[in-house]
Design goal:
Blueprint (H helix, E strand, L loop, with lengths): L10 H24 L7 H9 L8 H25 L3 H17 L5 H18 L8 H24 L14 H10 L6 H22 L8 H9 L4 H29 L3 H18 L4 H18 L4 H25 L33
Helix pairs in contact: 1-2, 1-6, 1-11, 2-3, 2-6, 3-5, 3-6, 4-5, 4-8, 8-9, 8-13, 9-13, 10-12, 10-13, 11-12
Length: 365
């Protein structure tokens, strides 16, 4: 079936890249969980989030992107702690940050991934039972995780990965600013996506507050963040793949959690493997990526005292709600008709999103 086709990346190279990116995440998790650190995976999760930006780039360029995104991931983690205990603040903050992340698609997919990683940091921490006293630790630990990922990329570069970034992909601040300014109108697919994305995420947060899903409700906006894209065809394809991948991931994670029985080192190793598959499968098969990232989230939650078997049904329920919200977002407010639906682009390709802006506003990273 075309829906479950493999591509655009070749599995072998993609999985090797994923294994490399997972090294700092696994190292942090082994230390945090193996030594029963009070950080409980915070550094590892910061490293996980900062592994996605520029994951397609040569090591030196990747390190620069990771170092730039790390403090933003840390700041959003702190902001999530501060706003996560209030429904009004959580919804409003998610609407603004989500819209900003969605608008990053106006520049390029690589810039968009950075924006989504930053928004994901806010989303995760808003859904955790943290208090004001956790604000500074969240800032420092998440930032440290991102900088660990950047430092590892620099080590990879120093050890011999001296591939240079193609000139066409080098960051151009003037072109990026032009793309951002040039899309500020409702005729822009990127601008409409930003408003749609921010509103959908805010509705997702409001929904889990309204339903009293304090422990697992963040899976609603999490689903929205992963599936909602500027292109309608790509979004609806991801909806089906997300549903399948989540079910598979929940089954695998629940079985692993029951088998590992809370053994810290074994769980840390399983989390590292799940991370490698998540990185490696993102551009190979989205349903498999979803399964891998679901395994990571469930096992990490289980490691901090949450029973995976009891939570599986609630996570599936939350995912279903997120899928419905994502679908309705496009049905209620679609893109302007331009004769034909824009063709979806490779999520990691170094080219701007089609239909996002006139050519003079486009930027390459």
């Amino acid at each position: 079936m075309a829906l479950f086709a493999i591509g655009p990346s070749e599995p072998g190279p993609a999985l090797r890249r994923g294994a490399l990116l997972a090294v700092p995440v696994g190292a942090a998790l082994l230390l945090e969980l193996g030594l029963d650190s009070p950080t409980k995976g915070a550094i590892g999760t910061g490293a996980l989030l900062c592994g996605f930006p520029a994951m397609d780039a040569p090591a030196r360029t990747r390190a620069a992107w990771q170092a730039a995104v790390a403090p933003l991931v840390g700041f959003m983690a702190a902001l999530g702690v501060l706003t996560g205990s209030s429904a009004v603040l959580a919804v409003a903050t998610m609407a603004v940050v989500g819209a900003a992340a969605g608008y990053c698609f106006s520049v390029s997919p690589r810039f968009a991934i950075a924006g989504l990683s930053v928004a994901l940091s806010l989303l995760i921490t808003q859904g955790l039972p943290l208090g004001p006293s956790d604000t500074l630790p969240a800032l420092l630990l998440a930032t440290a995780g991102g900088l660990l990922q950047a430092a590892f990329s620099l080590c990879v570069w120093a050890l011999g990965d001296r591939a240079a970034e193609k000139q066409a992909n080098v960051w151009n601040p003037a072109a990026a600013a032009s793309a951002l300014a040039g899309n500020l109108n409702l005729g822009s697919t990127s601008f409409r996506h930003a408003l749609r994305f921010g509103a959908a995420l805010a509705i997702g947060v409001a929904t889990y507050w309204a339903l009293g899903m304090s422990e697992h409700g963040f899976w609603i906006p999490l689903t929205i963040l992963f599936v909602l894209r500027p292109d309608q065809g790509e979004t609806f394809q991801r909806l089906g793949l997300r549903a399948v991948g989540t079910v598979v991931g929940l089954v695998i994670a629940t079985a692993l959690a029951e088998w590992l029985r809370g053994e810290p080192l074994a769980i840390a190793l399983a989390l590292a493997i799940a991370t490698a598959f998540a990185y490696g499968l993102l551009t190979v098969q989205y349903a498999l990526f979803t399964a891998a990232i679901t395994v990571y989230a469930v096992l990490l939650a289980d490691s901090i005292g949450e029973t995976a078997l009891q939570a599986a049904g609630q996570r599936a329920y939350a995912t279903a709600i997120g899928i419905v919200i994502s679908g309705l977002a496009f049905l209620l407010w679609s893109n302007p008709r331009r004769g034909s639906e824009p063709k979806p682009v490779d999520f990691l390709a170094d080219q701007p999103n089609r239909g996002a802006a006139p050519r003079r506003h486009r930027s390459r990273l």
